[in-house]
Write a structure and sequence with these properties.
Helices cover 37% and strands 24% of the residues. It is α/β, with parallel strands linked by helices. A 4-stranded mixed beta sheet has the order 1-10-7-6. A 4-stranded mixed beta sheet has the order 4-5-12-11. The chain is globular. It binds N,N,N-trimethyl-histidine (AVJ).
Length: 295
């Protein structure tokens, strides 16, 4: 019989393998789920993206947060980070563990599962403020974003709050540079997904035959990251029991980052059981922080 730790890691591998198989064999555009970009290497590369001059998003997010009144100044506050990357969770607890009046209790779970765990453990008079920052909502298609907000609302009580950070539309040139920086950090972040599949699922992706590509999709108003095959090639992913052929110039779509208009957020809130009580905009890098109240 497998030990608990081993069976847990096998369960992770098989979920990963099943997702890789399903998304890579989709008819039409091949895909890979963006959540798998964040293994230990990917999380470290993302931290580096956040300090690139071309990627203004995270700094805008932080500038707006600093302008809001300190959340924990008046009373003891618990912070429950919900994070699927164990290395990111550990780094975060270490970095924020020193703040007075704040206790940190991490949950290594997907967002909604983690939120459910926290909500189930709440005291009768506790208020919840959910932080969903960094335009992570932008990874969802617009309809899926609505569904996600509705699911969040269903877990919350009336009067609970959600601080939602969203990146705003800006010039196409700036948006493309933010996702295709000249130093190649974003390219490495994207390519690492194939390297991860090689490491964890025994695949034989030849990384030298792929190029990072950032595209602006004008209809959907989103940046898409793709990996373009520079030649016709076959790839074998043993743990996913998968062999497939990529044509020259065929791409694998790895991530979407939807961009918003400021007035879209109160409308999203109204559709999903919240009201937007406040909106703050960073002028240096158009980005909004929105305070949504569960109605
Ligand atoms: C963490 C999903 C918000 O979409 O801007 C950064 C991820 N991808 N550069 C984003 C990302 C490429 C980021 N999110």
């Amino acid at each position: 019989m497998a030990t608990p730790a081993l069976s847990l890691s096998l369960r992770h591998v098989s979920a990963f393998a099943a997702d890789v198989r399903e998304s890579l064999t989709k008819p039409g555009q091949r895909e890979l789920p963006s959540k798998y970009l964040y293994d230990e290497v990917g999380s470290a590369l993302f931290e580096t993206i956040c300090v690139l001059p071309e990627y203004g998003l995270t700094r805008a997010d932080a500038r707006l947060l600093e302008k809001l009144e300190a959340l924990s100044r008046r009373q003891k506050t618990y912070y429950y980070p919900i994070e699927i990357s164990p290395s990111a969770l550990a780094a975060l607890s270490k970095e924020l563990g020193q703040i007075d009046m704040v206790s940190i209790v991490g949950h290594e779970q997907p967002y909604l599962e983690g939120l459910r765990t926290v909500a189930e453990g709440r005291g009768e008079r506790d208020h919840l403020l959910v932080l969903f920052l960094g335009s992570t909502i932008g990874n969802f298609d617009r309809d899926a974003g609505d569904t996600f907000l509705r699911e969040m609302r269903a877990i919350l009580q009336t009067g609970d709050a959600l601080l939602l950070g969203t990146d705003l539309e800006k010039s196409i040139e700036l948006q493309l540079l933010a996702y295709d920086d000249p130093a190649g950090v974003t390219a490495a972040f994207n390519l690492n997904l194939l390297a991860r599949i090689n490491r964890e699922l025994g695949a034989d992706f030849d990384l030298s035959c792929f190029r990072h590509q950032a595209r602006w999709n004008r209809v959907e108003r989103r940046i898409e990251m793709h990996l373009r095959s520079t030649c016709r090639q076959t790839v074998h992913v043993p743990a996913a029991n998968l062999r497939f052929m990529l044509e020259e110039d065929e791409t694998i779509w790895t991530e979407s980052s939807h961009k918003y208009r400021a007035e879209e957020i109160p409308e999203m809130a109204a559709r999903t059981g919240f009201r937007c009580d406040g909106q703050w905009i960073d002028r240096e890098w158009p980005f909004t922080q929105n305070l949504l109240i569960a109605g």
